[in-house]
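Hi there,

I know you've been waiting on this one. I reran it after we fixed the sequence typo, so this is the corrected version. Both the input and the resulting structure follow.
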Amino acid sequence: MAISLTESAASRVRDYLDTRGAGVGLRLGVTKTGCSGYSYVINYADEITDSDILFEDKGVTLVVDAEALPLIDGTEVDFVKSGLNEAFKFRNPNVSGECGCGESFNV
């Protein structure tokens, strides 16, 4: 089981945590929502709980709740810029379908 980051995503997280001056890494999860079932949740992690599973990639700690891991195992997180927009993007091999707007997915 693993979650990975592209160099662009790792650089963004490291820079943000340095600027922020706090945090232990990046927290990834899912929530039930949308027309396809699940949506990604991404935040900066300030603490680690007993139910968290940790991954390290490119100098960044990735914090994932154990219940979310089966849905996002193998996911690569990227950080992309397009014009004035910038966002984290997910390449999840478990996805069997996505809604038309791309906000939710199912497995």
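Quick highlight: Residues 37 and 95 are 11 Å apart (CA to CA).

Best,
R. S.
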